[in-house]
């Protein structure tokens, strides 16, 4: 998954820029599904020390992780903050509401479509289209414990 690898790279960069030490043990790879999120949650919670926050790379995985946290009696965000990629509309309907990183998918789609329409016939073009992400703070995250 190319998207997953890019997100891992961005995560590693953010950790380093924040002055923290990156460890590969901070990453759990699972399938992009609610079940994958639940399995990833269970795996990461076995580690010592237990994490204070999870950054989940896909929305359905975050739903699975939230459900697994509830079953494990882990209170989000008191025991563990959680942030997920993709600001889907029902993130604000979950309990707790889910903090998300939203990508401007409609704009990316429009730019991709315009590139296809505007390209010369039978000519392959390679162009990177990127947009800034936006953080939607909700109930699933809070300040780091000191």
From TrEMBL:
Residues 3-141 form the Transcriptional regulator LacI/GalR-like sensor domain. InterPro entries: LacI/GalR-like_sensor, Peripla_BP_I. GO terms for molecular function: DNA-binding transcription factor activity; transcription cis-regulatory region binding. CDD domains: PBP1_LacI_sugar_binding-like. Keywords: DNA-binding, Transcription, Transcription regulation. This is Unannotated protein. It comes from freshwater metagenome.
């Amino acid at each position: 998954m190319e998207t997953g690898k890019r997100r891992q790279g961005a995560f590693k960069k953010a950790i380093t820029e924040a002055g923290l030490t990156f460890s590969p043990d901070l990453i759990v790879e699972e399938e992009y599904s609610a079940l994958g999120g639940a399995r990833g949650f269970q795996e990461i919670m076995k580690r010592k020390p237990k994490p204070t926050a999870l950054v989940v790379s896909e929305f359905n995985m975050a739903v699975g992780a939230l459900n697994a946290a509830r079953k494990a009696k882990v209170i989000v965000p008191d025991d563990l903050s959680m942030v997920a990629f993709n600001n889907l509309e029902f993130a604000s309907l979950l309990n707790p509401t889910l903090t998300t990183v939203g990508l401007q998918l409609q704009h990316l789609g429009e730019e991709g479509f315009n590139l296809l329409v505007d390209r010369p016939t039978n000519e392959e073009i390679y162009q990177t289209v990127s947009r800034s992400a936006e953080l939607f703070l909700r109930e699933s995250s809070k300040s780091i414990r000191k």
